[in-house]
Amino acid sequence: MSVKNYDVIIVGGGVMGCATAYYLLKFDSKLKVAIIEKDPSYEFASTPLSDGNMRIQFNIKENIQMSQYGMEVMQRFADEFEVDGVKPDAAFRQQGNLFVLDENSKDESYEGYLLQKSLGCEVEWLTPEEVGKYYPLYNLKDCVAGTFGPKDGTMSPMGVLNGYKKKVIQLGAEYIHAEVSQVLREGNQVVGVKLINNEILQSNIVMNAAGAWAKYLAESAGTTIPVEPTKRQVTIVETNLHSEKVLPALFLPSGLYVIHEGEGMFMIGKCFNDDYVGVDDFVWERSMFEERMWEELVAYLPTFDRLKISRGWAGLYEVNTLDSNAILGESPDLKGFYFANGFSGHGFQQCHAVGRYIAELMLHKTPTLDLSIFSPNRIVENAPVFESRRKII
After folding, report:
1. What percent of the chain has pLDDT over 90?
2. 293-311 pLDDT per residue, tens
3. Where are the alpha helices (DSSP H) in the chain?
4. I want to staple 320 with a disulfide (CB 3.0 to 4.6 A). Which of 247, 263, 334, 342 is the partner?
5. Is residue 77 part of a domain?
6. 124: phi then psi, degrees, rounded to nearest 5
7. The domain containing residue 61 runs over which residues?
8. Are 177 and 302 members of one domain?
């Protein structure tokens, strides 16, 4: 059996892997880059199962800056990722994100607001009355203030993924439908991957872009990362509420979020501490909404007491159990093995900046945006970087 050699092997063909391949080939068109994806239909991949939101409302400078760059990319996405005369449609809709603040979150959120403003972000600090004007359906329960990012919004995850995927293939990346059984190493140097059909692909640079499966890929290389695949569910409901315009995405103090799809359709979701951990359950449970979200939803938005459950789906977050922030960079104990993992729900919106950053590290370029705060070294040092002092995002 012949052995194939590559400059870079990327394990995972989701938006993170494809974005990294794009920047690698943008920096050096002669690179031989392989993207290995076990399921090109992306049926269970996290990218298409995400809610496709992007926001600048973070409390860590680097998270804010990643979103700022992502929004720059989205403004030119159709033109930059045109292939054979066809422009991708990312359906980027900037309806804004509205965060409702209670007494527990007000002070810290104000610090975040000041940081966002200092970085040039468009964001507004709102009184409860102003929150009510932005979202008339909300009864102001628990609200002492709010923040509104008018440039925040939602887009089509598959639109973005397909834009990157088609472009990198045009640029020369080899997109391989296969599954990796093991990341290969010699001493403390990565040397390639072994596929489940026993084929060997060689490279001194391998990227873990396996999303919710990242932990298992790392273990096959003889290393570990604190990432757990965690089931998250969203439900689409239909109401008799018809707003003249699309309402902002609403994030309530309890963690419940409501995204207006248009007309009377809304997407509802919430994370729970007992969400299932594993990669073998993608069953959407109607009862999750009916028994654990609906009553709470009505407490904040009384007009949702009458609705029709249209559909729903379940997908996986790759939750970083240390601090819920990204793990970016070369493994401290395996040279040439790069992590882009543990995004805990932020990966889709951060793929543009992360793809550029990981490509720059691989090619030993000075990073355009220094994201070393998210280095894997902090895992070894047990030095978490929390987005919030309350340790939630």
Report:
1. 92
2. 999 999 999 999 999 999 9
3. 15-27, 61-80, 103-118, 128-134, 157-171, 214-220, 286-292, 294-300, 347-362, 377-380
4. 342
5. no
6. -120, 140
7. 4-71+157-226+322-380
8. no
